[in-house]
Design a protein that fits this description.
By secondary structure, the chain is an alpha/beta fold. It has 9 helices and 25 strands. The radius of gyration is 30 Å and the shape is elongated. The relative contact order is 0.07. Bound molecules: flavin mononucleotide. The site of flavin mononucleotide has 9 residues, from loops.
């Protein structure tokens, strides 16, 4: 998950599923915590981990009942003696700052792992140490229950920036933030899922994403090079201006996608692909293998197809107005309810190709003979 996504989707989570967390997952969260900055790198934090159900039950004595239902509760403590003796009075706030930063890192990491948590300030401070035999030099600053959220939580409102911030002196120019390019290289990620995510200008290179699912993903101007996307499913994906090079898309399914103006160059394998309600207007496809594909309700107006294998494919409701198909194999392809106004077919193999059930090669022969 991108950092921005983790920041945006983190929610204080107070209801959890039964799913337990492994030690590896707990360590992953803790590690994110200890990577936080700390005053003079003194790392004034200490974490007690309540994964044991019987121990968590004891929490009910000091805080709200729902907290002990989380699969893991961290007791986030600080050992503030060292800091205060080093920095004196001004160091008093440092342990609180150190632990707060660690907790935010832990919450973001948890979000990244599909988990959620909540910083808890409301608990009986004076009973906690005794209850869990925590030495007095460790002062608890928070409880931090973490687990898998039971349901999706809507975001809480934030005050507008203008209410909580102001410039002192001159303001900088307005400017704009350039979207960061998402890059995925040399990865083996079969069955990966991408959903509700913006990946404009993404670069996929030497990646195995077979059987991957793309749902509501902005992949406009994405570049795919040397990539295996066989069996991948795309729905509601925006792939405007995408570029495909040496891509295997065999058996891929495209539903309600915008692929207009995309370019499929060199060896794009899309055998048995399924395109349904896909906008491919003005797309350029060169040297693509699309045999035995099914294209339904596809917009291909103005598209340029060169050296395409569409043999034995089924095309219905395809708008090919003004399109140009050259040096392509349409052997046995079936076109139904398609629109070909101003379209051109040049140097193509059309043997066995039918348009609304009519064998085109035979019809042309019959027409020539009549002439
Ligand atoms: C210092 C601190 C103490 C908090 N204490 C509690 C608490 O005792 N109980 C609770 O349910 N939530 C607690 N929260 C969570 C806040 O209610 C929550 O962060 C806030 O409502 C914003 O919601 P969000 O985190 O989902 O954006 C605390 C948060 C902070 C930062």
């Amino acid at each position: 998950m991108e950092l921005q996504n983790a920041i945006e989707s983190r929610r204080s989570t107070r209801e959890f599923t039964e799913r337990k967390l492994t030690k590896a997952e707990i360590n992953e969260i803790l590690r994110a915590g200890i990577l936080a900055p700390s005053a003079c790198n003194m790392q004034s934090w200490y974490f007690y981990i309540l994964a044991d159900e019987a121990e968590r039950e004891k929490l009910k004595e000091v805080c709200a009942d729902w907290i002990s239902a989380a699969p893991v509760v961290f007791i986030v403590c600080t050992d503030d003696n060292g800091i205060v003796s080093r920095f004196g009075e001004r160091g008093r706030k440092f342990p609180m700052q150190d632990t707060s930063l660690a907790m935010e890192n832990m919450l973001l990491k948890a979000t990244d792992m599909g988990l959620g948590g909540c910083i808890i300030g409301a608990y009986k401070q004076d009973r906690l140490n005794e209850l869990f035999n925590i030495p007095n030099e460790h002062t608890a600053v928070s409880l931090l229950p973490i687990g898998e959220p039971k349901e999706k939580i809507p975001p809480r409102d934030r005050k507008p920036l203008g209410d909580v911030s102001s410039y002192i002196g001159e303001e900088p120019e307005e400017g704009e933030i350039k979207p960061k390019q998402f890059e995925l290289k040399h990865a083996y990620l079969p069955n990966a899922e991408f959903s509700d995510i913006g990946l404009p200008n993404a670069l996929f290179d030497d990646v195995n994403l077979s059987e991957a699912k793309f749902n509501n993903v902005d992949l406009s101007k994405a570049e795919y090079g040397d990539i295996n996307l066989s069996g991948a499913k795309y729905s509601a994906a925006n792939m405007t201006g995408a570029e495909f090079k040496c891509v295997e898309l065999n058996g891929a399914k495209f539903g309600c996608c915008e692929i207009c103006e995309s370019e499929g160059k060199y060896c794009v394998e899309m055998k048995e692909a399924l395109f349904d309600s896909v906008d491919m207007n003005a797309a350029k496809l060169n040297h693509c293998r699309l045999e035995s594909s099914v294209l339904t309700d596809v917009k291909m107006a103005g598209a340029k197809l060169y050296d395409i294998d569409l043999d034995e494919s089924d095309l219905s409701g395809v708008n090919m107005v003004g399109s140009r198909v050259q040096c392509s194999n349409l052997y046995g392809a079936s076109f139904k309810n398609c629109c070909f106004a101003n379209a051109s077919l040049e140097s193509c193999d059309i043997e066995g190709m039918t348009v609304d059930g009519v064998n085109v090669a035979e019809a042309i022969e019959a027409f020539k003979a009549k002439k």
